[in-house]
Amino acid sequence: MSNQGVGKRVLRKEDDRYLRGKGQYVADIRLAGMRDVAFVRSPVAHAKLADIYVPEHCRGQVYTAADLNRAGVKPIVADTALPGFRSSAQPILADGKVRHVGELVAMCVAETRARAEDVAAAVQVEYDELDTVSDMLKGREPDAPRLHEAWPDNLFLTTDFSVNMDAVRDAPIKVTREIRTSRQVMAPMEGRGCVAYWDTRVEQLVLYTATQIPHIVRTGLAECLGLPEGQVRVITPDVGGGFGYKGILLTEEVAVSWLAMQLGHPVRWIEDRREHLTASANCREHHYRITGYASADGRLLGIDCDATVDSGAYSSYPFSACLEAGQIGSILPGTYDFPSYHCATYSVATNKCPILPYRGVARTGVCFALELLLDDLARAAGVEPYELRMKSLVRPEQMPFDNITNKHFDSGDYPEALRRAVAAIDLPAIRERQKRGEPDGRLIGVGLAVYCEQAAHGTSVYAGWGIPMVPGHEQATLRMTPDGGLEIRIGAHSHGQSLETTLAQVANEKLGIDVADVKVIHGDTEYTPYSTGTWGSRCMVMSGGAVSRACDELLKRLCHIGAFVMKTTPDKVTVSEGAVHSDGASVPISEVARIWYRRPQDLPPEANAGGLEVTEGYKPQRDTGTFGYGAHAALVAVDPQTGDVEILDYVVVEDGGKLVNPMVVDGQIYGGTAQGIGTALYEEMPFDAAAQPLASTFADYLLPGPTEVPEPRLIHMETLSPYTEFGVKGIGESGAIAPPATILNAINDALRPLGAALYTSPATPHRVLEAIFKARSAQSQKAAGQEAPLAMEEL
User: Fold this and answer.
1) Closest CA to 489 of 523, 516, 458
2) For 359-417, how does the pLDDT look when each residue is reduced to its tens digit (9 = 90+)?
3) Contacts of 136 (CB under 8 A, 6+ apart)
4) What is the largest CA-CA distance in the chain?
5) What are the distances in angstroms from CA 702 to CA 286, 358, 637, 758?
6) Rounded Cα distance, 275 and 195, in Å
7) What confidence tens digit (pLDDT) does each residue in 630-675 have?
8) What CA–CA distance (Å, rounded) separates 607 from 596?
9) Is the dihedral of CA 351, 353, 357, 360 positive or negative?
10) Distance CA 461, CA 620 (A)
11) Are 154 and 147 contacting, i.e. CB atoms less than 8 angstroms apart?
């Protein structure tokens, strides 16, 4: 029995080079004659470009939209086929107008980055400023300034979905809340960057770039530059985190690639952290006006929601500006079974940089809105929050289950996950502790949240969106080496998912080859099968499935040759532990490989001419996605004098189907939970009324560190998906989805004796104190017989 196959805790192969400082990132690429690029970026959010003045001594080092236009470079366009979607063309360099702070205005090149920045500082740009849209709700108003002059308003897209709402209008319990999530940045350890050169030998543009989607970048790059895709090669070396931030085609990638073609020598751009924070993509700015309906005994009956998403100035390629809001309407019901639902969504264009699908993609926001609402519905019904959830969750005997928005839940036991979370956090003991009070005067509270993560979205899902990137069969190419090693080529890319380890485990499970003898090759469009890339927790389902199917085909060929060598028939042999076996005899796979490559005279006459190299594709039996899920529970202490929040205990119960490597899953959950804690308590990219970003360094944009993130207690469940290889489900995003709702519910539970509550993330000390102050003010006014004005948190 192998100790390296599916389900085993195998140490990550990648870590050896990372921990020894031997990883190779874009910034490590050094090519002869390479020069560096710095960009002139707009310091204003909305303006017409009146004039760009380039000093004489900088001529030949500065390029503007006029240069790209003469060369026929096209803007980036990311449209969908959804009815009513409005198209935006994102120029590579601003052409006549800028629409957000940090938009590229000019490209400057020099021997070093420092000198390129000096050139950029010498360029003078005259801006005729225009009125800005800095708030998405104001951007919806009819008289709001227009970002795109041809549009009748600032809406990329609106959606409206309704089922059976008349049935719940007279429900005994009705609670309405206004809930908001703040804008964030993704903050991977490595920022973006690219190096481009023109290979004259093969007449090909070569681009090294830190991306999650090398094949999609190639497609988009070829479209913008007017090149056949065969003349574009994208190489993605090691990537220091992605989280969606590296999941789009960048204007910088197009600009640098064009410049390399013009100059005839390599050109590099490496993003600095100020560019990352103030000029590049953001995420997660949502607003909800949401009403919940419940029965008198505390069962969810319906939801009515108006959701707005700040989509920024442009639609990013390939996912488009509608991804967040478009998903809200379909995934807001979460893991619950109820009969009535309405959701209208609005994707609003504002004078901010575009949004991207950050880890959890819309799910974090909808989980936040729904789970906060459920706590308040439970209190209105006079039951514990977990009791309302227990009455409303989809039950295991209903699986597979089509919910009210036709999401097809493949498998799971949602109530059991919640039961385990409640038991692990020891809710009765916490309630007794609350009655006693804390010696230090702090208030403690407990919070829960249940979530699901639709992963491995398939063709049927994305074809309905009509976007440029529709996932199909994910392919894998397997090739035995002459000495019996195995090479695996995949089109997806690993930037923290441990694919070099987990895909080797799949091969070990099927072929018995030691994981040390398996090499996973990825990140080069020249040598890997086409793929839509790494996003949406799809790699283990899709690439893992493709590797498994390719192993099955390779297995047949190994058995055929091995059986011939042992003078038996293929139906009487098996493969395990790196060898072909039959009736006590065996032939090592390495010997089979040696025969194919070096002793063809010993091959059976009818041996497959394809040899020991196979390419196979994979799609699950049903490609509407897998549904991982879980329940989180948190115990927090809130200081009512300072507003400080401390997480005392945190429990994660998760079910990702079959866990290929539980150690890797633990790491994914730990990392996701840390990011979710950042969303809940720290991370916020604020903008002023002129749409100026107000956090330009990590002194202003706070990230949680080791002292802010407790070690979660993980409880694994394994309910196999009926549609995938090994029963796996996606797990990469799940840890980040539930923490904001869980922690805010815990804070609100702690503040309940004061009559205070928060409905905006992050729950900063200022917001905690503001909520307490408003509650005390309202109580004082009520005691004096005055009507207290409603605060946002009380609507």
Assistant:
1) 523
2) 999 999 999 999 999 999 999 999 999 999 999 999 999 999 999 999 999 999 999 99
3) 285, 287, 308, 309, 310, 346, 348, 350
4) 101
5) 20, 17, 20, 20
6) 17
7) 999 999 999 999 999 999 999 999 999 999 999 999 999 999 999 9
8) 9
9) negative
10) 13
11) yes
